[in-house]
Amino acid sequence: MTVHELLAPTLDRRSTRWNRRAPVVAAMLVDLLLLVVVTLSAGFGRAVLPVFREAGDVPELVAAAGPPIVLGWFAVIALSGGYAPHLLGAGTQEYKLVVRASLVAAGAIGVVSFLGKVPLSRGFFFLLIIIGVPLLLLGRHLLRRVVHLLRRRGLLCHRVVVAGSAASVDEVTTVLRREPWLGFTVVGALVPPSEHTDVTPGGIPVLGTTARTAAVVGDADCDIVLFAGGAVSSARAMRRAAWDLEDTNVQIMLVPSLTDVSTDRVRARPAAGLHLMELEGPRAHRASRVSKRAFDIVGAGLCLVLASPVLLATAVAIRRYDGGPVIFRQRRVGRHGDFFDCLKFRSMVVDADRLRPEVAENMHGEDHVLFKDAHDPRVTPPGRVIRRFSVDETPQFLNVLRGEMSLVGPRPPLPGEVEQYTDEVRTRLAVRPGMTGLWQVSGRSDLSWEDSVRLDLYYVDNWSLVQDLAILWRTVSAVLTGRGAY
Question: How far is CA 149 from the centre of its chain?
Answer without folding.
Answer: 14
